[in-house]
Amino acid sequence: MQGLFIMKATLTGSGWSDRMPTPLWEALVRHVAARPVPWHVPGHKMGRGAPPDLIRWLGAGLKLDLTELPGLDDLHQPEGPIAEAQVLVAQTFGADESFFLVGGSTVGNIAMLLATCEPGETVLIARNVHRSVISGLMLAGASALVVAPDWEYDLGVPGGIRVETVARILGAHPEIRTVLVTSPTYHGVCSDLASLAEEVHRRGGLLLVDEAHGGHFPFVQGSPPGALASGADAVVQSWHKTMGSLTQSAVLHLRGNRVDRQRIRESLATVQSSSPSYLLMASLDLARQWMQNEGGRRLDSVVQTLAQVREELDAVPGVDVLTAERARRAGGVGLDPARLTLGVVGSRGTGIEWGEALRRRGIWPELEEPTAVTFVAGPGDDSRIIGRLVKGLQDVAMEIGGVGEPAEGRRGSRVFPGTEAAEWAALLQELWHSEEGQDLIRPRLARKVRWVPLGKALGLQAARAVIPYPPGIPMLLPGERIRPLHNELIRMGRSMGVRLVGMPSDEEVVAVTEEGRE
Ligand SMILES: Cc1ncc(COP(=O)(O)O)c(C=O)c1O
């Protein structure tokens, strides 16, 4: 691995230099500038043979859609510009090794589990993990116990994972070595990863973190500490979500020697394409440099403007803003400052209705759920765009209206009794807590599947997950016995317009296994 850049040489006294190298990007541009005549794949031959509409929209970018040519390295055995670009990522994030992902954090989560679990092993997973974690367990032949996140009762959204709860479950299950949590959550709540890492390591275990939504933390002031800095052993980050790289591009970082690096490489080679997109990989190379410089500065300033409008939005009738204070009360240690989650259980509409009303005004949220709406800020936003969001929200609040004063509820929190959305959130929380430390989840790919009307599925074993999407957190897990709580949540979700992946949208049927055969 010769010619690797040593990033320290490029550091200036004030931080990262504006001239950080982008080795993969530069190698691609050099290749194109030499005007090669391609007699190799991809068959569009640097765009010349691509469909006209692709040429019209992607233009010169198609020239960079190249493959493993001499000088352009190989993701699965990197020794040139890909290796150099990955080293720069590792140095920037304080990892011992970082890997480019071209299948999103999805493949990162799967590879982390494939590399760290033996078949039959039990892993402790947060109940609010993304579906890719369930896929990883399935492929690794592993099982899981779940730990439920705390709950933010004002908004009806999940909070952080408490270290005491993890310690209690690990105490009762000393056979568990691996713990996997999501932090930040889709709503931006960060768990106390430093304490979790300490607890897990004290017991000789591994902490894997799905930090899909938190890649930008090192570049934005006021962000909670990132997973690597907190001591996690392996971390995945969807850079396409928050760092400006192309959709599907992501990164997996390793720190320390608890995770076998060779097994990670093998796992990644198993789940990633043998023709990884150079556009995706080059976008990762550029995104790192961008966030270290102008992109990071811009996001920082967007976040400051967003902080100013949080209070303004909290005053909108029917709206509760998810604040760092609320995140801390809900078992977290902080909140992603680039994420804005608004609870709307105090209004006359669900989060899904808020989303529709906003879209009618040209504003497209990231996530709409019965109780809340979530927005993702990026380096391309500015005070004008944020102002438009605030105005849109104020207009929607007038259109939808509030339901008056909340009643005092559980644990001194405020609840809005009688709204279907609040009821949904309460049931979801009940479901997750009822599963905590109890049932062993053994997700397996069902061989034979029957579709059964929901009303007749009670007690049967689910063959497929049922997943509100986004956020992609399974409500019903494959292999789970279907309970009345599942039925109620599925029915309510459908009636409120939640998109449920894993069941047809026009029929109330769920997939179950052929009893006794699985
Ligand atoms: C918490 C979490 N983890 C993993 C993923 C999967 O990431 P990707 O879309 O990059 O594959 C998502 C996607 O939304 C997610 O929310």
Automatic annotation (TrEMBL):
<dbReference type="Pfam" id="PF01276">
    <property type="entry name" value="OKR_DC_1"/>
</dbReference>
<dbReference type="Pfam" id="PF03711">
    <property type="entry name" value="OKR_DC_1_C"/>
</dbReference>
<dbReference type="GO" id="GO:0016831">
    <property type="term" value="F:carboxy-lyase activity"/>
</dbReference>
<dbReference type="InterPro" id="IPR008286">
    <property type="entry name" value="Prn/Lys/Arg_de-COase_C"/>
</dbReference>
<keyword id="KW-0456">Lyase</keyword>
<comment type="similarity">
    <text>Belongs to the Orn/Lys/Arg decarboxylase class-I family.</text>
</comment>
<feature type="domain" description="Orn/Lys/Arg decarboxylases family 1 pyridoxal-P attachment site">
    <location>
        <begin position="236"/>
        <end position="250"/>
    </location>
</feature>
<keyword id="KW-0663">Pyridoxal phosphate</keyword>
<keyword id="KW-0210">Decarboxylase</keyword>
<dbReference type="InterPro" id="IPR000310">
    <property type="entry name" value="Orn/Lys/Arg_deCO2ase_major_dom"/>
</dbReference>
<protein>
    <submittedName>
        <fullName>Arginine decarboxylase</fullName>
    </submittedName>
</protein>
<dbReference type="InterPro" id="IPR036633">
    <property type="entry name" value="Prn/Lys/Arg_de-COase_C_sf"/>
</dbReference>
<dbReference type="InterPro" id="IPR015421">
    <property type="entry name" value="PyrdxlP-dep_Trfase_major"/>
</dbReference>
<dbReference type="InterPro" id="IPR052357">
    <property type="entry name" value="Orn_Lys_Arg_decarboxylase-I"/>
</dbReference>
<dbReference type="InterPro" id="IPR015424">
    <property type="entry name" value="PyrdxlP-dep_Trfase"/>
</dbReference>
